[in-house]
Amino acid sequence: MEEESIGIDEVVAIGYGTVKKSDITGSVASVNSKDFVKGVASDALQLVAGKASGVNINQVNAEPGGKLTVRVRGAGSINSSNNVLVVIDGLPGGSTSDINPSDIESVEILKDASAAAIYGTRAANGVILITTKKGKEGVPTISYNTYWAYQTPSYKFDVLDATQYMKMINDINKDSGKTAPYTDSEIAAAGKGTDWQDEILRNATAMSHQFSINGGNKQAKYYTSLGYINQDGIMVSSGFKRINALVNLELNPTEKFRFGISVNGNLSFKDKIANESNSGNENADPLNAALMFDPRLSPECMSSNQIELFGLKNKRHFFDFSRIN
């Protein structure tokens, strides 16, 4: 074991400014960039999932770029919203999905009622304070961060192949006193047929690139970055892409006067798989259809009604799932 000194005067950002950690009376969880969760992250809050006690962060669905729900110490209301207040660089009401995770310096979470003294009733469900990276004095520093990930379906349901399916139909008819519709030669010729899970699921990749420059002197400091993330979904025709740009500029013309400019922009594209909630088609459910679909058929012989079960555009473009932007 090794000795380690812990500084009780470490500074933590809260609301309008900063205080020493030893002076904080409320409950605050602080996570710095070195402690962020490693792996694919399209939303800034994925960086602190599981890193703060009493804070539950879940993704609503598994689609790339899917929305996150955050609950601080559980749900506080039955009828009203339980969403936390997000404050980015001092500006309330921001969206964590619009920020490049690589541009975040630290995340603080205010978990108790003391946050209401700063932000009012909006802070009833907790406050998440996000601080983006700023320029540092010195010569210009150029950084490039990247990662590449490979994603595979973790589980596939065990379903009947064409031969097993035809035997099952024969057995059902025999038990009912009816004639078996399939002969032994037809069953032998059927083979495995089509596993529709293989038709709609795939191995997918995810990648991220971030290029940044920072530097400055006592009078002016700057940080600027350009980021790109591209995540394909394991379901065919699903995916998420986003381009981010951030400029943080801090000017100190005199000792008593200081001001800063922060500009963040993003452009995102999301391909969603059509389902009942986003397409209006109660039959559009690709995964459920893949589990229930006849293994004797092939993609080339699908009718227009059968195609609708997969939420597909048309028979010719079998893999073109309806896009919901």
Q: How would you describe this protein?
A:
By secondary structure, the chain is of the alpha+beta class. It has a domain at 11-132: TonB-dependent receptor, plug domain (Ferric Hydroxamate Uptake Protein, Chain A, domain 1). It contains 7 helices and 14 strands. The strands form 4 sheets. The chain has a 5-stranded mixed beta sheet with strand order 3-8-9-6-7, with no helix packed on it. Strands 10-11-12-13-14 form a 5-stranded antiparallel beta sheet, with no helix packed on it. The chain starts with 10 loop residues before the first strand and ends in a 16-residue tail after the last helix. 26% of the residues are buried.
Number of helices: 7
The CATH architecture assignment of the domain at 11-132 turns out to be: Beta Complex
Give the beta-strand count: 14
Question: Given this structure, which CATH class of the domain at 11-132 is correct?
Answer: Mainly Beta
User: Which structural category fits the helices and strands?
Assistant: alpha+beta
Q: So, the CATH homologous superfamily of the domain at 11-132?
A: TonB-dependent receptor, plug domain
The main sheet comes to: 5 strands, mixed
Q: What is the CATH topology of the domain at 11-132?
A: Ferric Hydroxamate Uptake Protein, Chain A, domain 1
**Which radius of gyration do the C-alpha atoms yield?**
27 Å
Low-confidence stretches: 19-25, 311-325
Overall mean pLDDT stands at 78
Strand residue content: 25-35%
Spatial sequence of strands, sheet with the most strands: 3-8-9-6-7
Secondary-structure element sequence?
EEEEEEEEHEEHHHEEEEHHH
Distance between the termini: 54 Å
Q: Which outline best applies?
A: elongated
| Helical residue percent band | 10-25%
